[in-house]
Amino acid sequence: MAEKVRNFDWASTPLGPITGWSPALKIVVDLMMASKFPKCLFWGPDLIAIFNDAYYPLLGETKIHSLGEPYRVTWAEVWDDMKPIIDKAMGGEAVFIEDHHIPVARYGAPEDAYFTFCYSPVRDENGRINGIMDTVVETTGKVHTARELKAERERLLQLFEQAPSFMTVLRGPEHVFEYINPQYAKLINGRDVVGKTLAEGLPEVVEQGFVGLLDSVYSTGEPYTAYAAKVDLLQDDGAIEERFLDFVYQPIRDASGEVTGVFVEGSDVTERHFAERAVLDREERLRELNETLEVQVAERTAQLDRVWRKARDVQVVVGLDGILHAISPAWETILGRDPADATGRHFSEFIWHEDLGRTQDNLDRALTRGDLNGFENRYTHADGTPRWLSWRTTTEGDRIYAYGRDITAEKDQTIALAAAEDALRQAHKMEAVGQLTGGVAHDFNNMLAVIMGSLDLLTRRVGVEDPRAKRYLDAAMDGAKRAAALTQRLLAFSRQQPLRPEAINVNRLVSGMSDLLRHSIGAGIRLETVLAGGLWSVNADPNQLENVILNLGVNARDAMPKGGRLTIETQNAHLDYRYVAAQPGLPEGQYVLIAVTDTGTGMTPEVIAKAFDPFFTTKETGKGTGLGLSQVYGFVKQSGGHVKIYSEPGEGTTVKIYLPRVVAAAKAENEGADYGLPTGEAQEIVLVVDDEAAVRQFSIDALTELGYRVLEADGYAGAIRMIEQHPDIALLFTDIVMPDGNGRKLADDAQGLRPDLKVLYTSGYTRNAVVHNGVVDPGVELIGKPFTVDALAAKVREILDKAD
Questions:
Q1: pLDDT greater than 80 at residue 458
Q2: N or C end of the chain: smaller count of CB under 10 Å?
Q3: What pTM does this model have?
């Protein structure tokens, strides 16, 4: 298309020769031609069309020559419908249309197609809106799929309605009827029970013990099965009718595994019961009357035939060669297949492919070692889905007699539960490691506070007179800062770094990082951003979020040593109950997705399973700390979000971050200014409280160097005495974690004595004293360890100068 645009006779259009095009038009066309998304630019008063290669296939056979045509000519059949949308876009308002129906002629015939597109206003170099950019994605397949899924749901509901067995769903501990199928309505003589408790709808069954059975299933979660259970049911005329039922009470669980109701399914076997009893009576009479053998055989055959036809379990007779010789009607109930069509065919035609070898092995075992009991495998339903069956077999002569029970529901429930347990174990592991790393980071921060503070003060005293000493001090400070950055990553992983969240426009944040990312990943890697329109805001710490994206960008760079493409994509997302059921602690709801994708070497499943573990790395020794992805994990979890890795060896990697949506506009970023190193005066008294002597001494030296008068205490009791003895103390500078009472309690009690006393906290490990759910409490001032003299000077001056 780029070549067609260059060679097109634009002089015959209102746009004029391409050499006379405005700079804005040329830039927009160049950007559009480079895009992989279908795009069409409509420019000028006549909305002349210019489009890229990705847009070309969407035009259909009748419109492939529309380059340079006005919109109203190319799309004359939809012009009246689209005119209001075009007017909005030309008025400066971007318009997003989802799943819009547009008939097109492609592949030799007209067809109904659906498209999701955005009309965005495009301005010229003078700021005037002079065109519209149409970014479009075809959604025909999605629309058709949605329709097919709806039809499938309706079909399944119809099958449920047409089930030969009776079914009902009872909700809650009171066993309220939520749904009954026609067979159940027939069983209870058409009584209106939906919305009523079992005791209200069928009061006659209470004294018969069925409510007690339901209570047991609801409380224990254990299913209950009954065969030919006697039930007395009330009739319209007030009479009681005796019925016999085969049924199962199956507990219904929610995503967390809690029992929320009971599913009841069964069959009315009254006729069979009376028939069996009649057969027994008849056999007794036959024995008494010494009837002929032929009569006995006939009666027994009739009985077995009824069992064959009425049984809920499927019964099959298989030859030693695997050919099905006889199949009971339950085959159709369970698998949706006509038994007559399966008779005479090999059993392997109906086995789920992955279970074929195992099934053949067990059939061989049944032939050589005896009967099978409880063998489970999957058969293919007529709709293409698997059905689990549990088999018992008996071999007699050249025939195998097998009885299969449908256990699909039980199997499915077990497999959800297993996935949730795996996720919970992983969460517990990460929590335990997080507690350990948080404690280590605390001790490191205290040590680094002494080291960095001493180096800072020593640097100020040495000055520039001794260049060699200054160089040594700078090298030591650089190493200490790198160690401090390492402890911050440990705190990030353990979800114990204090965050200062605010409403963020993620698109703006990602766009603002473009230059930094390009510089970090190098010239050999192409950076692409795909930012969704109408993106929701999130509530997160913007600095930490930038660090996370930068971390992922650097990881991607290392995975593409020969170059490649790094893509950062944003979009709105919804995590439904099915997804979050396997993610302990993650609530269902709306999220903003940030996806970072590379075209690098990818990861194996084994590497993905350990990727978030601290200090785990696949890089060479000295090439990485193994804390990059750990920091990502900690920040996302601390922010209430979710992170997931998708990767295959040789196919690249995508890291998806989900942050909860917040309904608020992102705050504008305020640029600060550097006013030099703020100092104090001797009449301004600061009380320093820290149980670590070395850390306390550095704080004293630093504040003294800055011009403040400094008092000290090593804990809660000494600090309270100082405050009582010195009413002119202006600032309490206290550590949070101390043996004889934390800093928050000290500050509260001190301000009880001196309401005007100002407080600055410090800590390398907050322990939830002033930080809750990872967020600094409102009104609290905090400086994290280790800190520099410059940072301390600015923070102290800011607090003392703040109006009460």
A1: no
A2: C
A3: 0.39
